[in-house]
Amino acid sequence: MLSARSLQWFYLLVLLSVTTVLAAEETQAANDCDWYCWVEKKINSLEKQVDKITKLLFPDVDNNTSTSIDDNAPNAPTGHPRYPSSFGAPYASITANHGVAKLISRPIVTVTPTGRTPIATSTPSEPKPDVQARAGYRSLAYFGNWDIYGRKYFPQQVPAEKLTHLLYSFADIKSDGTVVLTDTYADTDIHYQGDSWSDSGNNVYGAVNQLAMLKARNRNMKVMLSIGGWTYTNTNKHLDTPASTAQGRQAFAASCVDMVKNYGFDGIDIDWEYPQNTTQGSQFLAMLTEMRSQLDDYAETLVYADAAGRKTKPHFLISMAAPAGDTNYRLLPLGKIAAVLDFINLMAYDYAGSWDKTSGHASNLYASTSNPLSTPFNTYGVVNAYIAAGVPSAKLNLGMPLYGRAFTKTRGPGLPYDGIGDGTWEKGVYDFKDLPLKGAKEYYSKEAGATFSYDNSTGMFISYDTLNMALRKVDYIKQNKLGGAMWWEVSGDRTDKGSIITNVVRGLGGSDGSGIESSSNWLAYPDSQYDNIKNAYSH
Ligand SMILES: *[C@@H]1O[C@H](CO)[C@@H](O)[C@H](O)[C@H]1NC(C)=O
Ligand SMILES: *[C@@H]1O[C@H](CO)[C@@H](O)[C@H](O)[C@H]1NC(C)=O
Ligand SMILES: *[C@@H]1O[C@H](CO)[C@@H](O)[C@H](O)[C@H]1NC(C)=O
Ligand SMILES: *[C@@H]1O[C@H](CO)[C@@H](O)[C@H](O)[C@H]1NC(C)=O
C-alpha cells in the first residue's frame, strides 16, 4: 500500500504527463481541427485520466461522472408534486462532475507546459458600439455550467445574436450570504483556444471570459448570473439562512455586487425553489429590495460621460425564476416583488413527470376538460394568477422547455405508465433536438394547447413543445402582452432551420411592431479583481 505522501507524488506526476500529452495534442489540433473539436479532445482525454486518478485517490468518491438522475438518490425529491421545476436540475449528478472538475482544473491553470507558446492572444476584439435603446420582447435562455461536459456545449455556441439575456447558472450561497461560483473548471479556469497560457497578472478564463467576449460582439445580449436552482435551494436550502436576517441579506446583496463587479455580469437572477411560507416570502422580497439598493449604489460609482458628453451609467438587472405551482406562488408577495424586479421568468414547464401517478402534459397552455388528469397545471391559469396578484404582464417572461418529459408503457396522456425512459442525459428527459424519437409520431391536443409524441409500438409518450407549439406560444405571448420568452435550457435546441429559439425570436420580432428588446449590455468593469475583465474595455 502506498503512503499518502507517495500517492501525492504519483498524482502530481500523472498530472504533469497529462498536460504534456495535451500540449502535443494541441499543436496537432491547431492543424486539423477547429476549436471545439480541440476542446472536446482535451476534455475527453482529461476526463479519462482524472477518472482513473480519482478512483485511485478517492475510492469513496461517487464513480458516476455521467449526468444521470437517480430517483432513489438521497437528495431526490419525494412525493407529488415536484412542480416546477427541476430546472433540469441534475440533482443526483452534478456533484460527480464537480469532483472531477476540481481535479482537472489544477493542471490546467497552474502547470505551464514547457516549450509551449500560446496559440493566440486573449486580447478580445474591439467591442461593437452600443445598440439603440428600444422596448420590445425579451428572449432569454439559461446556460448551465455543466453543459461543457457530457453535452459538449460550450459558451461559444450560445446563439448570442438571438438572445436579449443569457442566464448563466448556477451559483451557490454560503450560510453567511456569500455567493460562490460552483465549478471552478467550467466557470473560470478552462483555457479555450485563444486563451493565453502566459498572461501576466490575475486573469479569469473559463466561461466568464468567453461570455465577456460574447458580450463585446453581441451588445444586445445581457449576461446575468443565476443563483440558486433546485439543488442548492431545494435539496440544500442554502438561501434559508442568509435570507432570514437583515445582516444575511446585506451580505448576500454585497456579494451579488461583487459577482457583477468582478466577473462582468449585467445582473443577477435568483432561483429560490421555494420560499416555504409567507415569512420566507417576505424575506425574499426584503432580500431583493436590498439587492436593488446595493446594485443601484454601485452603478452610481460607474457614472461616466459618453462620446456626446451625456452622463450614463449601468442599470444592473435583477430577475427571478418563478414557480408555476399555486402552493408555491401564493406564499410570495408577487405584486411587490414585481415592482422591485426588472422581470420575472415563469417556469411554465415540468407540470408533469416521474413524480405523478399518471402521464401528463408538462408545458400545456390550457386545462383539458375531457381529460383533466392529463393537465395537472396549465400556463393560462398561472399567468392569470400572476397578473391578478399585481404582476404587470410585460414583466412576465414565459418559460418554455427545450426538452421533453417521457412516460413509458402508457396508452397516452392522463393514463397510468410504467417507467420514464433512458433520456438523453438524465432519465426521463430528452433534448428537444433529439425529438421525436425514431418510430414516434407527433400529435397536437388543441384542447390542452400541447404537443407530444407517441410510439404505439412501445407505448412511450413524450410531452414537449414542437416548433409549431412554440410558435403558438408566440401568439399567446403577443395576445397576452407578456414580456417575452425564456428557455430552459439553451443546449437542448436544434441548430438547424428547426431551432425553436431562432424561430420564436423571428416570430416575436415580426408583425405586431414591437419586436425584440434592444438595450446595450455593460462592458466597463473598472473594479474587477481580474485584470483581463478590468482592462478589456473602458469608457
Ligand atoms: C468506485 O469504483 C471502484 C472500482 O472501480 C470501487 O472499488 C469503489 O468501491 C467504487 N466506489 C463507489 C463509491 O462506488
Ligand atoms: C451512480 O450513483 C448512484 C447514486 O448516486 C448509485 O446508486 C449508482 O449505483 C451509481 N452507479 C454506478 C455505475 O456507480
Ligand atoms: C418558514 O419556513 C422555514 C423553512 O422551512 C422555517 O424555518 C420557518 O420556521 C418557517 N416560519 C414560519 C413562521 O412558519
Ligand atoms: C401504429 O402506427 C402506425 C403508423 O401510424 C399504424 O400503421 C399502425 O396501425 C399503428 N398501430 C396500432 C396498433 O395502432
Give short descriptive properties of this protein.
539 residues, alpha/beta, TIM Barrel, Chitinase A, domain 3, 3 domains, eight-stranded parallel barrel, 16 strands, 14% strand, binds 2-acetamido-2-deoxy-beta-D-glucopyranose
- The N- and C-terminal alpha carbons lie at a distance of 60 Å
Mean pLDDT: 83
Largest sheet: 8 strands, parallel, barrel
State the helical fraction. 25-40%
Strand proportion: 5-15%
- Gyration radius over CA: 23 Å
SS-based class = alpha/beta
Give the CATH class of the largest domain: Alpha Beta
The CATH superfamily label of the largest domain reads Glycosidases
Fold blueprint:
Elements: H1 4-32, H2 35-57, H3 94-110, E1 138-144, E2 165-173, E3 179-180, H4 184-189, H5 206-217, E4 222-228, H6 229-235, H7 240-243, H8 246-263, E5 267-271, H9 278-300, E6 304-305, E7 311-312, E8 317-322, H10 326-329, H11 334-340, E9 343-346, H12 379-388, E10 396-401, E11 403-407, E12 429-431, E13 441-445, E14 450-455, E15 460-463, H13 467-479, E16 484-488, H14 500-509, H15 531-536
Parallel strand pairs: 1-2, 1-16, 2-4, 4-5, 5-8, 8-9, 9-10, 10-16
Antiparallel strand pairs: 2-3, 6-7, 11-12, 11-15, 13-14, 14-15
Bound molecules: 2-acetamido-2-deoxy-beta-D-glucopyranose (NAG) (4 copies).
